Structures
1.
Amino acid sequence: MALLTILFSLLSLLLILVASNIVKSHGMALREATVEDLQLAFKQNRLTSRQLVEFYLREIRRLNPVLKGVIEVNPDALYLADKADQERKAKAPVTHSNLHGIPILVKDNIATKDKLNTTAGSYALLGSIVPRDAGVVTKLRQAGAIILGKASLSEWSHFRSDNAPGGWSARGGQGLNPYNLLARPCGSSSGSAISVAANLAAVSLGTETDGSILCPANLNSVVGIKPTVGLTSRAGVVPISPRQDSVGPICRTVSDAVHVLDAIVGIDQIDIATIEMSKYIPKGGYAQFLRRDGLKGKRIGMVKDPFFDFGNDTFLAQTFELHFKTLRREGGILVDHLKLDNVGEIFSSAAENTALSAEFKISLNAYLKELVTSPVRSLADVIAFNNKSKKEKVKQYGQNLFLTAEATNGMGNAEKAALSSIARLSKNGFEKVMKKNKLDALVAGDPFDILSTPLALGGFPGIIVPAGYKDGVPFGICFGGLRGSEQKLIEIAYAFEQATKIRKPPPLKF
């Protein structure tokens, strides 16, 4: 009896250790491990890709029933891990890649030609078969990354209904913020941010049309990079707008995000925008810009209205004053008292929504028609599918954005006028303040995620880094720049991150 009591106590202790996430392999703590940590452990034979994948699969089984950050796990993940381990033993050329043997979650609107579904969170696409891997997935596989599974998202990248909360999809349920289950995770790349924040994967991919990488990274205390539109391929991604869509990393650190970015940028003949945008990719890649002194001499613009308008919130105001001091101490030149002359019009104009509605219908119909098999072949089919569905959750939040898009008829006079307005808003707003003041970046204290729209309108890049926590809910600081300015933004963000080291893992007390 005493022996049984001892055994039970030992088993209870083991369960507590696992539940508290103090999980090690060959003496290495895997929680919060970076890509560089993992590669060093591989090299020193302290860790295998199989052990790493098994760790993440355990964490997904433990935490995902509550967080709902992962919509589907790759049944071949362990096979792919074994393959990576064999390649490492054979010293294959691919093992020199920073992502070799690293498990990654990709957002469920990014096609994978394997046993995984690609559904954008919708039952309408469940069981459909894609013609090929998305361009970014092809590059990930070439780098030796392990596709661990699909991250959940706001259904149809939050372009089905504006009544649905961020992080919700009929197929995946409601994603939750791991720092505070009552706080929103934001969308549409909610699952990508939730999952890396909670250590359900090493790194992840998200997509952004307007805020869908920056906002979830902001509220889940992780790093998000929204690249210049066309720097990464959108081929094989369930689209909203080829003019604004971008694929980028969501990770726990700037260095991890940059290693993923290095793997996915470059020419994809199926997405012709990548041909022109490849001119911005620096020789030797982006990792060379992970510089501790990266802030030195950088001109960083501050538009206090609206990007630092915290009202009566003294905590946020004081926090960002400390961050300004850090930016200056690290060599940054803050150019203050700047204004966006058309700031009111940027945030009140209907031009973006007008253009996106028409672009969505055109590009989604083209995507659906190219599927090998699918229950739906057009936006009209998807609307009809949702109307006929007997699943109550499919109808839960309606589909008003779908209906608005379906009512469009190509790029008519109204849409062309909207595109002209968008170009003017960008030129006379963000572009003007950047060029006139010779800025390397514009900074925003982004608890409210409002820099994303100026960046979206011009197809500009942005990077967000953890900046603090208020009442347990994270918020970030965002740096945006002109097209092709990723290397400067990386230098700034990395130097800020290393000077502050604000991120901490979520408590996960459930």
2.
Amino acid sequence: METLSPEGSFWIFGYGSLIWHPPPKYDLSIPCYLRGYVRRLWMKSEDHRGTVEKPGRVLTLIPYEEWEKFSDWAQTPYDEGCWGMAFRIPAPFAKEIRAYLDDREVNGYTAHDVPVYAHIGDKKPILEHCLVYVGTSNSPQFQPSETIEELSDLISTRKGKSGPNYIYLFELANALRHLSPESKDTHVYKLEAAVKNKLQML
């Protein structure tokens, strides 16, 4: 039986733009589920979705035990977790693509090793080791706990070298809807609705 992780290869878990803009040279992808985290648009973007003067907001992952310290308007149920897509990078390209990912996620993110699951109720992970980039609360880019009103105002108007901030949000919401019937995200879908309402008024 072929192993999912041949020697020298690695897996990267995408929970944001990597889902719809995957890394180059991957040879296999799997929709999967990360336990113990919630997804939040709590990282400043001073390049791709905003500027230094007017930063946008992009995603990070918050560990449950840390998230509980914040006054979070979305009140995500614990069983939602975080759905995303894992991409396998073959051994011949591992060094090259790891360098590409380190550069892509340079703005406030650090690399972590996590297990991921095929279904919410599974006891055994489908992948024991998966690379994921997380913007921790120690990062200077971390900006937590804005209200839905404040965050939707900001995302509706900010723009960076990769385009408007709201396009990032809409691409994310559309991608999440197609990952799995189990995939839900209160934070993202509430924010998507609020931003669409803002744009209609601009």
3.
Amino acid sequence: MEKNLLTFLISCNGGSLQACQSQCAAAYPVVTGENFPAVSACQTNCSTNCNLSTVYLLITAK
């Protein structure tokens, strides 16, 4: 369980969806055609890694 919680803490930057998305916004303050793929990937990673269902699965995994 400790390993799974550590995975969450490492994967979900900032420890919450809102904090993770704020870090994406700070990293890419202006969205352009050039950096759009990176912005999109950052937001997708936040949505995936900070999802409460994912956290629940990590905690209950044995």
4.
Amino acid sequence: MLAKDLKPGSVFVHNGAPHILESVTVQSPSARGGNTLYKFRARNLVSKQKADLTCKGTDNLEEADFQKREVSLMYSDIEAVHLLDSADYNQYSIALADVENEMKYVCEGLEGLVALIYEGECVGLQVPATVELTITQTDPGVKGNSATGRTKPATLETGCLIQVPEYLKQGEKIKVDTRTHEFLGRA
């Protein structure tokens, strides 16, 4: 897979171990004929260490060999998240610290949740690109405010805090992009 095609959440092999991509920074060339550089911040799925990697857009990275299993959330405690495989009812656990960014968008009954299984052990969690969540707390909108432009903070049912347009009220269901952490629209 080409480096320019990688997106946050992609899984690839680096130094013989699977890594999940957390962020991408694109650095355009300053000189004519220069190469665009892609700077990746990834996390090793086995050792949990962070890794920084710089590649040209045409560099080829090996896709990691692991299983993707559709799962549902059973419960979460202070140490781990416990998941149930939708196909064969196997149970998987993963440390809460390893998936705290993904858990901002996971609520009960979420469809499309995928566990990354490497050598029989759950090493990561992928959430859908967009999720529908309910606003549990936000300041009330003021009559006469424009429907565009200004935003306000809103707390979602999972505890995640995002910026939403001023016209939205508490109790409304909205769509959120899990990759950019941005409001997409009403659900």
